[in-house]
Amino acid sequence: MARRVALAVDLGASSGRVVAGAFDGRLLELEEIHRFENAPVGMGGQLVWDVVRLWQEVVVGLRAAALKHPNAIATVGVDAWGVDFSLLGTDDALLANPVCYRDARTRGMVAVAEKTMTREEIFAATGLQFMEINSLYQLLAMQQRQSSVLAAGDRLLMIPDIFHWLLSGQRSNERTNASTSQCYDPQKNTWAFDMLARFGLPRRVFGEIAEPGTRVGPLRPEVAAETGLVGVQVVLPATHDTASAIAAVPAPEPPCARPDWCYVSLGTWALVGAELDRPLVTPQCLSLNFTNEGGVGGTTRLLKNVCGLWLVQQCRASWMRAGKKWTWDQLTALAAEAPPLITLIDPSHASLMAPDDMPEAIRSLARAKGEPVPESTAAVVRTALESVAAAVRRTLEELDVLLGRRVSRIHLVGGGVQNPILCQMIADATNRPVLAGPVEATAIGNLLVQLLAKDGVVDLREVRSVVRDSFEIVRYEPRNHVQWDKRLAGTEAAGLAARFDL
Description:
This protein is an alpha/beta fold. Among the domains are: 4-235, 2-Layer Sandwich (Nucleotidyltransferase, domain 5), CATH 3.30.420; 310-388, no CATH class. Helix content is 39%, strand content 20%. The protein contains 20 helices and 21 strands. The strands form six sheets. It has a seven-stranded mixed beta sheet with strand order 17-18-16-15-19-20-21, with helices on both faces. Strands 3-2-1-6-14-13 form a six-stranded mixed beta sheet. It has a two-stranded antiparallel ribbon with strand order 4-5. Helix 10 (241-247) crosses helix 17 and helix 17 (441-452) crosses helix 18. The longest helix is centred in the last third of the chain and has 27 residues, at 377-403.
């Protein structure tokens, strides 16, 4: 059959790209068309995303794709991170740049919310992990400041929704990204309107929920003319980047209540969890602060967010500012030579959220926790990587409790696949085999949902069959778990077992 081409616009918190996927009915081939930097910008006392510049970069990528694949491109879809949003006015104008989740406006807002509803009530309504960055607390911060943007808002659009509106002129709220907001009820598959009413948030801004694979409509005429993309349809992928990545996990088993495999989507964040056939909204889930987010094909991603490669990314940025131009490979090589398991910290500690100097922040946290202070570059990177592996171990032990079984293997996807030392650390720390790949899981999941959706319905088995046929997976066996067990003393699992009478 003739090859069909789709375009994935994949927006991340540090970079974005436009990727073309050519599909012949069995194999998918990827081609990165355009890559660009992304970072929040300080403006008017807030940290915001520069939507205008990002849109300009997307248009550059679409135009380049049209030149490379003339008359072959059928669809385009956008994925991005969760929780952040902006609002459209009644005149269909974007009222403000989206505020970045790392902005300080949400500090203390979880406690503010609990004056209106208890954690138990909020969790029962949303099933979501409590994090100050969630959209709910961003909205409450706007409400507290009597935001004119919120007052004038007619429709809330998450980050991918904004770009689908820019592409097509159509407003949409796709389920997987909506599910990250803590404004969505995963059991009813709609916005948590009763909870939102108790908080006094305007019902009007929350639109109908759309599923991955939904066809939104054609490109705006002016976008088609500017890019040269004629006859191209906008199709919603799983617009949350992790949901797209998990769709591309090459597991053969169908979703169920107690899966034998788990995933780690490893990039700036490490999202650790399991794919279920229904939400798990229980007191144990609340106690362990896990979240129920939407997945492709009506699935639920039961997971917890822990810090991923953010620490190393920000260390490198600090060193670059000081004139030390380390490459990623050089930093990984340095870490490999450093002594193992000397210093471990909590990579998700609040002090590491957005420090001015990440290496010094890591040293300060180690000092405060009574851990050996990593002085050298190699020791700092080793500390960061091993701390991520330890956090993954701890989170998987919690996941085992929730599932009532020990999952036997880890599917690791995302940029972290390219760091073999970290992949081996995770296998050793967890004492479970790691199947690493595909690297480009987010773009792959995005593209295959576009290419294989039928009337808005996606068959995950079909998607994953294509992934297994098209991309290489590397297996890492545990080989040093005894040393990790001694270093961590195995307290997490024992403590959890006692806590829940397991």
